[in-house]
Amino acid sequence: MNAVAEKYAHWDVGALFIYTNEAHPGENFPHLTSMEEKFDHARKLRDRLGVTRRILVDSLDGKCHRAFGSMPNMTWILTNSGMPIYKADWTDYVSVENALDYFLNMQERRRSGQRLVPFSVKRLDYRESDREAFYRRLAENGERAVQEFKEAFG
Amino acid sequence: MPDKELIEAYNYDSFVPEKYERWLNFESSLPLGKIITDFSLWDLNKEQTTLVTEVNQHPLTFIEFGSFT
What we know:
The complex is a heterodimer of chains A (about 150) and B (about 70). With about 150 residues, chain A is an alpha+beta fold. Chain A has helices at about 1-10, 35-50, 65, 95-110, 130-140, 145-154, and strands at about 15-20, 55, 75-80, 85-90. Chain B is built from three helices and three strands. Chains A and B meet through α1, β1, α2, β2 and α3 of A and α1, β1, α3 and β3 of B.
């Protein structure tokens, strides 16, 4: 997603990462009990996982995250007035790029004089699922995180 | 739910269905097309900001939610 941010910065698209609760706590990265821990984990997200986008930390009770549905790794697109225009319950760069291309084109159509009004659409997007890579990342959290995920999903 | 109880439940200590499933509420999340209420957020220097302040910087902003784990 860093690459998406860099690609679309040219069109003045902003990119944020909001730090939430720990989805798969383990021995190495336990659940959060304080804002100090949350800031520490967020810095490790930047330093170890290389997130280059602006990282913002939510409150410890996840007020923002919960309002947006509390999914562990979702992506939304908002306008500058604070209006959501895209929401996905998972993060996939192809889906996000597809949506950004659409909205940038929409802005261009408006600039060219078309009168556009919004409507809703629902569709299923498809993401690549690399289970081996996922388990490698999960193992960094601790063996307990791996075992709990296997017990939940096999 | 008292704040302490909410904080402990939201920051569940193990990934077991009885602890995480209650938080997966995407279907009842904020609607598209309506201006959101604002939320306080903090940058990594602990400086407070708000979500609307942040998205106000660009015509469009994409926001990924997540954690280290």
